[in-house]
Amino acid sequence: MEAAARLEEGEGIFTQVGNTFWRSPEAQTGTRVGKASDIWSFGVTAVYAITKMVIFAYDKLEEGVMPEVEVLSNMLSYFGPLPPGLIEHVRDSSWCHILAMLDQSFDKCTPRMPFALWKDVDGIEPGDKEFLGRILNLDPQLRPSAKELLEDEWFTSS
User: Which pLDDT tens digit goes with each residue over 76-85?
Assistant: First the structure.
């Protein structure tokens, strides 16, 4: 367990960890990550296991665009709009500004693509989008705990 950390309720790690495509929104900004960030990564992994899709991947970065910013844009497109709870969690003025600018960038020419409205995604069964949407909530305070997930019908039904 050399790379593991045991976190008590409310504790967090203040560093970027993991691959950009699998990191939570708060981890993209290098702010406090904790159990809710692990729940997010589980959600991204579940999407991959079900669909074989790396949901926040991009084909090519525009010059000068940080990978974290591109991934955050995809997150806001699929699971936005930007919740106040994420801003409160991040607190870093430069990242809060970036998040707000990204959130405001969606319009008729560049619409959001809500995950809940995606159609014909191979592997997605009824109930999957709602379950995954709860896990992939942009506000870390609103993500379910591991205990809540394990008690969810998604896990307990046959």
Answer: 999 999 999 9
